[in-house]
Structure formats: C-alpha cells, structure tokens
C-alpha cells in the first residue's frame, strides 16, 4: 500500500491528504476478498498442524476441526490445552509476521471436557494474555450472544429496552 492516501470530508470541509501506511481499505468492494486472501495462509497452517477437535459421524467418517473463520473472526478448536496453545502460537506468530494486530481484549478461551463446560485460567505467554471463561460466562460471536446455559438475566435486560 505504498503511496496510498485518503481524504476525509465532513459537511463542506475536506481534509488534506492522509497517508495510509498499512491495512486494507475499508468500504471498497474488494476489501473483504483481500482480507480473506491475506488470512488464507493462516487457515492452511492451522489445518496442516493436524490439531483440533474430532467430529465423528457413526464409525465410518471423521473430520478434524481446528478452526472456523468468518472475515476477521476466528474460533480455534483443540482436543486439549497443549493443542490449543500450539494453535494459539501459530495464530500469534502468523499475525506478527504479516503485521496484523489481534484484538486480544475480545478473545476468550472456553474449555469443554466430555461435554461439560469447565472454568479456564486463560493463556499467558510473551506479554500476551487471553482471559479464560467461567462455565456460566456469556460472550458475543458474530454479533450473537453465546452461552452454555440460558442467559435469562441478559435476555431480560436486552428486552427491557424495547
């Protein structure tokens, strides 16, 4: 993105040239495609790690799910804490290499063992901290509240504003 710039217009006033030094243009119809292309190598690295959660259907077919990506959101799946740490390390290293900053304040770690949601202490390494989630915590993914149990109080507070 060398030599790229933009101007801001508010009402009848326009700013001078503002240089764009990094990132992907927002508002352009190709921007989502560029972003997906930039993250495709990360998806490949995570897949090639062979880590992940095994999905089984009967006894014949199985699939290992290491991650789900949707535009700038990613969920990592692992069968144990060591695999999750490895997937996190791959993601963090890749992000550093391409100069991408992770929104760590939005990241959480959820632990499910044999279908039971358990508390998690989180992840800490090299000045990076990702908070763990308690079994009754609620989080938002793709704009939708996610919970392991019905979040009645949250739903009531949201409906109270209607």
TrEMBL record:
<dbReference type="InterPro" id="IPR043502">
    <property type="entry name" value="DNA/RNA_pol_sf"/>
</dbReference>
<protein>
    <recommendedName>
        <fullName>Reverse transcriptase domain-containing protein</fullName>
    </recommendedName>
</protein>
<dbReference type="InterPro" id="IPR000477">
    <property type="entry name" value="RT_dom"/>
</dbReference>
<dbReference type="GO" id="GO:0071897">
    <property type="term" value="P:DNA biosynthetic process"/>
</dbReference>
<feature type="domain" description="Reverse transcriptase">
    <location>
        <begin position="1"/>
        <end position="146"/>
    </location>
</feature>
<dbReference type="Pfam" id="PF00078">
    <property type="entry name" value="RVT_1"/>
</dbReference>
């Amino acid at each position: 993105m060398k030599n790229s710039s933009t101007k801001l217009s508010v009402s009848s006033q326009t700013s001078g040239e503002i240089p764009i030094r990094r990132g992907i243009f927002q508002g352009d119809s190709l921007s989502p495609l560029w972003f997906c292309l930039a993250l495709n190598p990360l998806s490949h690295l995570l897949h090639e790690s062979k880590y992940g959660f095994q999905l089984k259907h009967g006894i014949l077919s199985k699939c290992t799910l290491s991650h789900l990506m949707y535009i700038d959101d990613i969920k990592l799946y692992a069968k144990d804490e060591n695999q999750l740490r490895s997937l996190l390390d791959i993601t963090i290293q890749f992000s550093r290499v391409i100069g991408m900053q992770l929104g760590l304040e939005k990241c959480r770690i959820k632990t499910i063992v044999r279908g039971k949601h358990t508390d998690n202490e989180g992840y800490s390494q090299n000045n990076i901290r990702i908070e763990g989630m308690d079994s009754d915590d609620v989080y938002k993914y793709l704009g939708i509240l996610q919970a392991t149990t019905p979040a009645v109080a949250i739903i009531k507070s949201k409906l109270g504003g209607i």
